Amino acid sequence: MTEVVLAKGVIKRLAKDVREITRNPLIEHGIHYVHNTDNILKGQALCVGSKGTPYENGYYLFEFEFPPNYPHAPPLVTYHTNDGKTRFNPNYYRNGKVCLSILNTWSGDQWSSCNTISSILLALCTVLNDKPLLNEPGIKEDNKDFTPYNKIITFANLSVAIGDMLEKNFVKVKFPELRKIMVDHFKENYNSIMEQVYRNVGDHDSIATTRLYGMTMWLDYSNVGVRLTKIYEGFVKELL
């Protein structure tokens, strides 16, 4: 494998970006970033879903691969909060592809060397809003899929973005630093997360279907509540 020799300007710029987010973290936005200490061209990020959205308290993981000509080209960002079935956002594909104009993978204002790691992170989390389907071109709130899509994401957020992301071994191996943040957040916000379960119990045992993305999901809130409680109890036992 040929070793990539980086220009000093690339190293200097990446170091500047990392310094910026270290000095001015985006934690208040639910954003956490970890830069790879062994490979300067790699980084990882976690977006914790905002209150009042279908993504509330969910753990959305991303991997950054910076090109050797950064910042003249954007990084490749891969999305990892996936179960292979759920399209969590119009901008995030089931195969991990991230489509954002800032990354030159979506229509709109394209990448500029003025952009930074911080601006990319904010763009990644901004699309995780309360009306995600509006990110899809041509979709309006009166679309028949609008409500069932939000119901599917609200449930999958608890089942996959919280449950799976806390339990899956690949998260423990690939994102150890971010997983610790996730575990601490889950323990601190467990009651709030369970309130999300109870708040949606009216949809329990129903089925939500969308023509767009071809999704069908059984909303088994009783089961997901039991599962999240077991996860919490497991973390508590680890402290004893």
TrEMBL record:
InterPro entries: UBC, UBQ-conjugating_enzyme/RWD. The keyword Ribonucleoprotein does not apply. GO terms for molecular function: ATP binding; cysteine-type endopeptidase inhibitor activity; transferase activity. Residues 9-165 form the UBC core domain. It is found in: Cytoplasm. One of its GO terms (cellular component) is nucleus. Pfam families: UQ_con. Its main location: cytoplasm. This is Ubiquitin-conjugating enzyme E2 Z. It comes from viral metagenome.
